[in-house]
Structure formats: structure tokens, C-alpha cells
What we know:
The structure holds 2 protein chains of 2 kinds. Chain A is mainly β. Chain A is built from no helices and 11 strands. In chain A, strand 5 and strand 6 (53-57) form a beta hairpin. By secondary structure, chain B is mostly beta strands. Chain B is built from no helices and 11 strands. Chain B has strands spanning 3-5, 10-14, 19-21, 24-26, 32-38, 45-49, 60-61, 72-74, 83-90, 98-100, 104-109. Chain B is globular. The interface between A and B is medium-sized, with 27 and 22 residues.
Amino acid sequence: xxxxxxxxxxxxxxxxxxxxxxxxxxxxxxxxSWYQQxxxxxxxxxxxxxxxxxxxxxxxxxxxxGLQFPNYSSELNxxxxxxxxxxxxxxxxxxxxxxxxxxxxxxxxxxxx
Amino acid sequence: AxxxxxxxxxxxxxxxxxxxxxxxxxxxxxxxxxxxxxYSRQRLQLLLRHISRExxxxxxxxxxxxxxxxxxxxxxxxxxxxxxxYCALRGGQYGNKLVFGAGTILRVKS
Lengths: 113, 110
């Protein structure tokens, strides 16, 4: 059984650019949640995908979008990057929409200059 | 609105001393509460959840609905407990969404 993996580990972009972050869920998990963790703060919920459909969204603008693929891996896309988008982006996978434990990946650290 | 408050950014104790990491929450329904831990250079991982009512690595936490608190306790701190601890709440419209507090760094000194 493999754990949640994320790529890349680090990324530097400039304002206005677009970025795609990737997440492979843990074996057997069909739900992926994305979180943004700014420096000194706890993770903040961006959105969740269940069986390729968005299933809930936090207080983030539409320029934050995502996808989930048939193998349940997922992408987070951010358009028109702003300086405040600099953060650690975490994905977490779980099995179904019941109250199951979420398992976190190591995160992707994004720096926007 | 759902909110989790961890009032201490840093808690420093000596080895063998008792530990209490505070967590207060705001939620109108019946939430599920968690403690997550992040050790140095490791990923965020679940420490315990209130519905399990179990002790993990000597830590316990009791949900107090009257005080809306879920404090994490350990009677005797060990150096390997040094880490960042996050309290989190789950509930509401999107049942699997977690709302996290800002975290507390626990530093156990020898």
C-alpha cells in the first residue's frame, strides 16, 4: 500500500502565471481534498473531489480549480497567481464520503514572486 | 461559522512534566474533533479523534461540549513529543471537510 504523494515538492512562479499541482491518492481511496497552508497558519480547505466530481468548496476564488481522474489522482490548478498564493499546498485522500480518516501528502511548497 | 482556536503558538515544558494543549471550537451542530501532529520533516498525521476515545502515545483528549473544548493532555511529556499539533473539526455541509486551528508548537526540554 502506497501513501499519498504530491509533485512537485517545490515550485517558484511569478505573479500572473499559472500553476498545476498533482496528487496521487493512497491505494483504495477515491476522495481527494486540497488544503492551502500559509506560513504560521493551519491548513485551509480549498475543495474536495469524489469520484471525479467536485464535492464541496471552501472560500477560494474561481481561479483555483481542480480535476480528479479515473484513477482518483488529482490536480490543483491556480490561474493568475498572486503573491498571497505563496503557501504549502496539501492534498489528503480518504475512502468515500463517510467519516473516514484523511491521509495527508507531504505537500508542495509554492513561492510566488 | 466553524472555527477552531488554539490560543498558544508555543508551549515549552520539561521532560516528565504534564502537557495540556488547548483547543476551543465554534460550531452549532455536533462536530467531530481531531488532533493532528506534524513531527519535524514529516507529513501531517492523525493523532487521535474524539469518537475513538482512545489514548495514542499517551495522549488523551476529551470533548467538552459545554465548554466547546477538546484539549489534548499527556501526564508525562517525552522529548519525542516535540512537534506541531493541530486541532481540527469536521462537520457541516461538506461532512469530510476539516477546519484546522493555527497550531501549537510543543517543545519538550531535557
